[in-house]
């Protein structure tokens, strides 16, 4: 008999295992009757700083059946039953453009169904990409095709590797299982805010690629899709540029999954010029805010901050400007992490955040961004993308290289330039600038309002806190329109997926979208 037990609450000051077994005894489960036990979820309740608790949900295999009706916390465990599916076009080649989570998981699903995924990636495989990215930090010489945005694993490879998502999908468990099989930590399956870390994610991505290859997939790195060939509103071929050799060739193919990520501006323009329907979408722009990690830990945990069971603290901040119906919020919070240069275009510079698996760095950072839409940047296609480009080029011109502007948060609130150098996790050039004069007013005034609203919290807003920017690429600036099975509404055989197509926001939702669209468009149920 397999049962779930939920809402087991244990103080962080108590022996966790001992207290869990006590709670099981209260609910009719003796230690002797347990065949095996696994965590389904672990979350934290830190609302009362003097009484922080962990909350567990467990799945238990019992040797002998018990009466569940006696205990309100117990329920019969549900077995996840996935639909059996089969290929619509056996042993057929399908191209996948991009190796972020959407691209990799769509390629994996294709291979599992018996297809031959032909994967094109403009950047390098992950080990070479890592060397190139490190060299960029040291030399300021940018490779526009292999950087923090482009290359094996996509932009998520240089992030915190966060796996939390708001979507509900039967595919989430599969994604977790694949990550764990490829080297991720088992606790991602049950941690309330699961993350892998950029160091571990690089290993996972490489192992996922090898698994796809073992199932028949083929990978072509440093291979930029420069153009597509369309005839009678159907895709017929890809025009490929081998970045290293500068050789060009045509790859005939009539089924292509585009998982290009949110920074492939050249590809957006190419697809639009060939009749691929798309529209502007809302996104957000702002800055990174950086604190000492110990201050964020203290803010969230109070006097319990030194408890060894507590990880580097996370937070969520939000401010709603009701007059403008506009939100300002934290995004991609990286506890114990670093602020990094996320440039992918020559002469343009921006920032992002990432963490390693231990989250043990001196600083914690998060984006603080303001929601924007066509009412702000205009309704011409790519207007939002052009705003991103304008701000990134402006930053490069101000700093004079691939660096970032900075300002102490108190100085920002007082509209004055910071006159001292700051200590930061950011490894490239920092240039003091009054950020009030950098963004359009609708962004600046909402940042001001949000910081004023949060200023009652003197650990979050203080003279020790700094802003570094700009953060411009929170999500795709356009949506590539598709039908219910994931096919472009204007070009047959073209399937836009993931964050770059406007259908995901993060590693998990992008991976899920990749699997889902393959199932919808390339398979059928087996009854």
From TrEMBL:
Pfam families hit by this protein: FAD-depend_C
Source organism, top-level taxon: Bacteria
All residue ranges annotated as the FAD-dependent protein C-terminal domain in the record: 282-474
UniProt-recorded name of the protein: FAD-dependent dehydrogenase
Organism name: Fusobacterium polymorphum ATCC 10953
